[in-house]
Each structure stands twice: as structure tokens, then as C-alpha cells.
Amino acid sequence: MSETIHPDQEDTAGACLGILGVSAAEEALYRRLLRSGNGCVSATCLVSGEEVLADRLVELGVAVRGGLAGGVRAVGPARAVDQLIDDRLRRLRGELEAAIAATGVVESLISEMAGSHSSPVDVPPVQQLKGTAAVREAIDELTFFARSENLTVNPIGVLTPESIEASRPMDLRVLRRGLRMRTLMAAPALDDPATMAYLRELAAKGAEIRISYQPLERMIICDRSAALTPIDPSRTARGALLTRETGLVATLVALFERMWVSAQELPLEDEDAPSETECSVLKVLYTADKDESGARDLGMSVRTYRKYVASLMDRLGASNRFQAALLARERGWI
Are residues 135 and 113 located together in one domain of the fold? Predict the structure, then answer.
């Protein structure tokens, strides 16, 4: 059962999503969608001005289009609030990073570490960083101050879950700030689902990624002015060498460019990738609470919808619909 919505019916007394970037009018529409019989309101029942509000709810990720003549349907409250929190945290982090970069506070704190009597001359052109923690701290600092480009080479190709979680904040920060990111991965990456899912996640946000079947040398280069290479390539846990010496960095950049030219573009689709219709089913599967509403959104029968779902679950190796949606996201299908 759909519900006709009128502006003079709005009741914002219980509005509480303002802290998450939702206006009172937007929240009022979202609440009415939830109150409707199936969480969906047809386009013909949206009065003047509410189409804009509906578009905004879809943009925020708390509603989806489909069904009922192009109407709009509410996403479940828990999922909607989680989406709003993630979006708010991303925007807040970006604002804070920009503000901190403008104040120069990090540079000031680093000068405290260096000592009151030190000067840039005191910093050696090559520094030895011992242990994984020291290397990650250096990478964090280099990427924070990077202004134009980040180059990375991974000669192993496979990323552990721990490595992905440690890298994600730094990688996303680089991409969020509009820096150019180029990453070279060894061919074993192609056979590791978790690694490929992460690489496709970065590629979707603007990273340039290539796969190489040739031997690679591990390195990270920021702004072509600082570079990290392992102390012992066979035992990376020992630490790394950080160099800012112009000649050495230029040589490493040249090596990177040669490896880059001989590598291949990251394949964004796998051989078992879903069709356009299957992608639509997966997207609805992630938002629809019931098969009936999912089928209605796609304009197909429940029987056909369930056949698609069963086929996709089998290909993904999922035991239930929720797991299928999660696995599809991990593989970059949705």
C-alpha cells in the first residue's frame, strides 16, 4: 500500500538524523517511506518538491529507486544509519585532514622529535628503519605529506588481510586528496580473491594498477623525492631504507617506469563476472528484505528472481543471500 505525501503533513518533532547530514524534510520523507505498507512510494504519489528530496535520499544511500512506476523505497533503518555514519566519517576525516595540513601542525611535531638544535642538514640522505612498525610509520608520514604522486611495487602480489587493513586508510587518504597512485603487483595477485577485491576497490576510486609477470623490486616512492626499499628483499620484516638522496630516488623512479611499461592493466572483470541483469539482482539482493520486493523492483516474477539468486549463490559459494551479497561486493561485482 502506498502513501501520498504532502508537505503540510511533515512532522519533524522526532527528527534525529540531522547530525548525520540529513535535513528535517529528508528525514520526514524517509520516515513516511518506512511507514508505508511495503516501504515504497510510487513516483505519482510524490508531490512537487519531493522528487528532489527522494533523489537526495537515494544519493545518501537510505533509499533506492525501483518498483511502483519508478518510485522510491526505503532501505532498512539499521543499514541506512550505518551508511550515513560511514559517509559522515569519510567527510569529517577529509575536512580534518585538510585543516591539519593547512596548519602545519604535523611538521611542527616532527621538528620536536628531531630536537631543538637539529636542522635539515642533520638528517642523513639514507636512513635505516628497523622492523615493520617503523616502516609503517614512515609510510604513513610519507603519504601524509605527499602532494602529487605515490608509486608502489609489490613483488609478492598477494596481500594478507592484515596488510590490507593497514594499507587501506593510507591508500584511501592518498586517493581522497586527488594524488596520482600507481601500483605494480606481481601476477599471483590474480589468483587471490581478497587481493583482487582490494585492488579493484582502489581502481574504482582512481588508482592505476598493473599486473606484471616479470620479476619486480619492492619499493614505495612519494613525490619522486623520497623512496623506501627493503633492507633485505627476502626478509622484509627486518625493515627498510628510506632515502631522499636525489640521484638514488631518480634511479628508483626510472626502474619503476621500466617495470610499469612492461606490465599489463588490471583486469577489472573475471571470467565468471555476472551479466547486467545478474548485477541488478545482486544490487537489489543487498537492499531488498524480501524476494517479493526484490522481484518487484526489477520487474520480474518472484520465480525468475529466485532462479537468478540461486545461480549466483552457487557461483559465489554462498550459503545464504546475505553472504552472497557480501561475497559479490568483495569480488567487485557490485
Answer: no
